[in-house]
Amino acid sequence: MKKFLILLCIILILIACDRFEHKFEPEFIPSQARISANPTLGYVPLEVTFIDSSIAGTNPITSWEWDFDNDGTIDSLEQNPIFTYNEVGDFFAKLTVSDGKLASLDSILISVLEVGAPIADFSFEPASGYAPLEVSFTDESQPGSYPITNWEWDFDDNGTIDSYEQNPTYTYTEVGDYSIKLTVSDGSLNSSLTKTISVYGQNVLVELATGLNCVNCPYVEAALHNLKQQYGNRLSYVDYHINDELDIGNFDIFSYYGMSVLPTSVTQGTMITVGGSPTSQQQLDAIISPILEETPLVQFHDFNTTLEDDTLNGSVLLSVDGSVPLADLYLKFVLMENENTNYFNGAHEYPKNVVIAKGQHSISAHNFDEPVEFTLPDLSDLPDDITLVIWVQTLADPYNSDTCKIYNVTEKAIE
């Protein structure tokens, strides 16, 4: 009996030992692949830093296999590699980790965007004007994928960069049409835009003494009309009718310039042309075109008019160069009918730019910090299509073709 009890105790001890060993044997845990990346979104070429964030299991991780573009090819065996995407698209980067026994896979989406270029744009003020003309430029460009970092301005399209400022100013000292080019860049891509600015010289006035019954006058009238179409508001012309139904008392102009026959034209107050022929347009253009290139000594600003109760009131601010003699200096103003349909000229055409009212105002002692004000009274039964022409002129007595010049002229439609 004693031997039996001893044997039973030994068996129980062995069973207990076996159960203890199985109870505390550790469970095998596989590794888990985990990826993080920075950045996951950006513009091509996109450099991405991949970070292995995997969790090791029972055994340590011993290998890393990266497939950055999901093409089945292993691109790197490093634990924390760097890869550059040179193409646009969405890519699933995959990481496979292994502990030598089991493997685990994880992936992350990398989005590579196409780079957008900046779009150049700008405005400038004033849009045109007389030389010397100071112009302020405002950059209105739109950035692309990256901010704009560089501005290059070529104000006269000569290939030379005139300014690197974002919003520069520039003064045009010579007459002409200029191409303005702005190129903007974000350090990688650039964009350019070109616009045009017109820098004017002085405008030109032609005063024509004409008549409805004058045989050769239509040649000059047609020539001036054609040149007006060519030069627009750079050229003004007024027709003083002499001894006909459209004469409002224009003989004072006729006699002041020493005119003796019709037609006679006076350009810019100093250049007198007598007679008319089929070549009148070429002759007048040869006189007019050089003047248009000259820098004006008088400029007009804030030209305003009101027509009320048969009276036209006007005001204009003048910029007068210091070289202009103030003695006998006048602001002259003429109201003209654009086309008179009540009469025919010698070519059986309606006369144009017919003077219907005129006046002048001495500005020799005027303070040019203030506008010049003027009035044309007693205007009744005005036609619908009328234009006011004003100019600054030296009016010495007697007339002197060397000094009685017109310094500039402008016009405005009256409604």
Question: Describe it for me?
Answer:
The chain is mainly β and 415 residues long. The protein folds into 3 domains: 35-113, Immunoglobulins (Immunoglobulin-like); 122-200, Immunoglobulins (Immunoglobulin-like); 204-414, Macroglobulin (MG2) domain (Immunoglobulin-like), CATH 2.60.40.1930. It contains 4 helices and 25 strands. The protein has helices at 2-23, 217-231, 251-256, 280-292, and strands spanning 35-38, 41-43, 46-52, 63-67, 82-85, 89-98, 103-113, 122-125, 128-130, 133-139, 150-154, 169-172, 176-185, 190-200, 204-210, 235-241, 264-267, 271-274, 298-308, 311-320, 329-339, 352-362, 372-376, 386-394, 406-414. The protein has a 4-stranded mixed β-sheet with strand order 2-7-6-4, with no helix packed on it. Strands 9-14-13-11 form a 4-stranded mixed β-sheet, with no helix packed on it. Strands 16-15-17-18 form a 4-stranded mixed β-sheet. Helix 2 packs parallel to helix 4. The longest helix has 22 residues, at 2-23. The model has no long low-confidence stretch (mean pLDDT 93).
